[in-house]
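Work Package 4 report. The design task specified in the project plan requires that, given a folded chain encoded as structure tokens, an amino acid be chosen for each position. We show below one input record used in the internal validation round.
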């Protein structure tokens, strides 16, 4: 049967209708001979011949499907999609506006209890470096996933072509089986028309064989239909893989370079803005110093000029000191006069005391 399957793959397949049936009355003698060669294994005397009919083709299909599944099971088919989501998460982690906030908050960093709340620009750049490294790692995984998608598509294409060949083989097996079913049905009708010429078990066995063959053909038609559906499914999976690979390629070749370029520009602009702000602060500080120096110079000059025009001792001071001196002299004169007057009184009193003393002393003697 394996040889027949190989031969069938090299022949032009006969078209069946949507239900998997063929008009065997339209077969040419050559075609009838070919299909009889294929269905010759279907013998009513062999109870297993129906089970074995087309088994080699189905076993070959199953083996190839298992090999294909084993090859694609080595990696996650949804890996690229997951990596793209990871990449978007990393890209959304970047907030260029943080760079602008650092300049606004710079003065807050001088306040001790608020210093820890300020985002340091160096830490932001370090965070960006980590994100860039993560993006590079994810990008490398996306590249590998893209190659896996392309490799998967190559395997799917091989499977597609093999399924086409298997469908052709299945169709010819169905046509051959229908031809055998028609022949045996005619023979069964003859036997049932002349039951006396045959044993009852012979008619029953043939009737059972024809029924089982009809079921086998129905199963084969279902398998053929499923395989025809699989062709569309394979193409759909291939198209999805191609879309994923194209998206991955677009991200690798366009999105990532553009993003890195714009991030570099953003950082450069922020540093440029910081330099401009620093120069402005220097200019403002210089202007402030010059203004303060000018104001101080003006005030000092005025003060010096005022002081230079003044005498050593002001007239007001002289008036006050003269008045004070006159008051002092008057007070001293008054004190002298009172002292002189007191001394005269003292002299008089002393003389009186002396006279009184002498008088008393004479009386005692």
């Amino acid at each position: 049967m394996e040889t027949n399957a190989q031969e069938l793959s090299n022949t032009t397949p006969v078209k069946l209708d949507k239900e998997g049936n063929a008009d065997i009355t339209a077969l040419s003698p050559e075609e009838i001979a070919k299909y009889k060669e294929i269905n010759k294994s279907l013998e009513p005397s062999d109870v297993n011949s129906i089970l074995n009919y087309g088994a080699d083709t189905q076993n070959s299909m199953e083996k190839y499907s298992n090999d294909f599944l084993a090859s694609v099971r080595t990696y996650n088919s949804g890996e690229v999609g997951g990596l793209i989501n990871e990449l978007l998460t990393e890209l959304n982690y970047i907030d260029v506006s943080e760079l602008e906030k650092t300049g606004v908050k710079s003065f807050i960093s001088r306040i001790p209890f608020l210093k820890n709340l300020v985002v340091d620009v160096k830490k932001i750049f370090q965070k960006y470096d980590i994100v860039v490294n993560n993006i590079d790692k994810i990008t490398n995984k996306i590249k590998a996933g893209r190659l896996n998608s392309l490799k998967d598509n190559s395997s799917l294409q091989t499977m597609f072509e093999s399924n086409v060949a298997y469908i052709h083989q299945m169709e010819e097996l169905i046509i051959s089986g229908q031809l055998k079913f028609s022949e045996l049905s005619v023979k069964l009708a003859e036997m049932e028309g002349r039951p006396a010429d045959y044993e009852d078990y012979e008619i029953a066995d043939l009737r059972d064989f024809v029924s089982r063959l009809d079921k086998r053909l129905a199963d084969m038609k279902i398998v053929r239909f499923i395989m025809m559906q699989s062709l569309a499914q394979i193409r759909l999976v291939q198209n999805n893989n191609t879309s994923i690979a194209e998206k991955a390629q677009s991200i690798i070749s366009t999105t990532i370079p553009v993003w890195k370029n714009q991030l570099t520009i953003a950082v450069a602009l922020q540093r440029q803005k910081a330099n401009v702000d620093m120069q402005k602060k220097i200019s403002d500080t210089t202007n402030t110093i010059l203004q303060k120096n000018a104001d101080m110079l003006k005030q000092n000059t005025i003060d010096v000029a005022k002081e230079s025009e003044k005498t050593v001792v002001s007239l007001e001071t002289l008036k006050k000191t003269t008045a004070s001196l006159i008051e002092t002299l008057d007070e001293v004169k008054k004190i002298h006069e009172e002292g002189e007057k007191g001394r005269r009184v003292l002299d008089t009193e002393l003389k009186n005391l002396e006279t009184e003393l002498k008088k008393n002393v004479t009386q005692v003697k």
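Residues 153 and 238 are 5 Å apart (CA to CA). Validation will be extended to a larger panel in the next phase.
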